[in-house]
Amino acid sequence: MSTLIICGGAPGGLTAGVCGTIRDRLGGSAPVFYAGGYGHCTGCGSCASGGCVLDDGMDEVIDGFLSSDSIVLASPIRFSGPSSMLKTAMDRFQPLWYSRPEQGARRLFLLLTAGSDSPRTEYTEGIVRAFCASTGCAYSGCWLIPGTDRDDGAASADAVINDLVSSIQSPP
Ligand SMILES: Cc1cc2nc3c(=O)[nH]c(=O)nc-3n(C[C@H](O)[C@H](O)[C@H](O)COP(=O)(O)O)c2cc1C
Question: Does residue 78 register a pLDDT over 80?
């Protein structure tokens, strides 16, 4: 079983810390890619018949995605949506929209952190469900760490991370 983690939080931030903990609890072998390092898809269409014109390492992320059974997309909620960093990386999966991977070949787990105790997750989930449909992933649900802007905000993180890791390790 192999897992790929794409982190939509900035390095050093809370979401990045959560991604590191998820990786460690999965045994340390799951790669964590930071979404902020990749350029924007311009919609040029080159990937319909060849490779992406941007040479920034996103190919490695897509190769890792295709060779994994489970994908974790992690993001802080920003204005009730995913971070722009995560959305930018998601747009770069356009080659898979053209190649249409087999449906259900891998499971996708969404991990969100949020400053509010009752954030709106539905917009991010809608975007991620659409991503799943285009990239052949089975959407496995959303794990939320709320209230992170409070002093004791990350108190629920441990239980949420444990539950997510045990879901990833459970058979589909
Ligand atoms: C630009 C911006 C927009 C945000 N919008 C929301 C929001 O709509 N709902 C919410 O609950 N928290 C919101 N937050 C708070 C973050 O989700 C929260 O602080 C998060 O845990 C930070 O994670 P990070 O350290 O990985 O960036 C926002 C934070 C920023 C910087």
Answer: yes
Domain boundaries, the chain: 3-38+56-155
C-alpha torsion sign, points 1, 128, 49, 34:
negative
Whose C-alpha lies nearest to ligand 1, atom 1? 78
Instruction: Round the average pLDDT of the chain to a whole number and report it.
Output: 96
Q: How far is the CA of 2 from the centre of ligand 1 (A)?
A: 29
pLDDT tens readout for residues 145-166: 999 999 887 788 999 999 999 9
The structure tokens listed for 34 are: 């930071």
Is residue 12 lining ligand 1, measured as CB closer than 6 Å? no
| Cβ of 78 below 6 Å from ligand 1 | yes
Question: For residue 139, how far is the Cα from the chain centroid?
Answer: 11
CATH 3.40.50.360 is held by the domain 3-38+56-155: yes
pTM of the model: 0.97
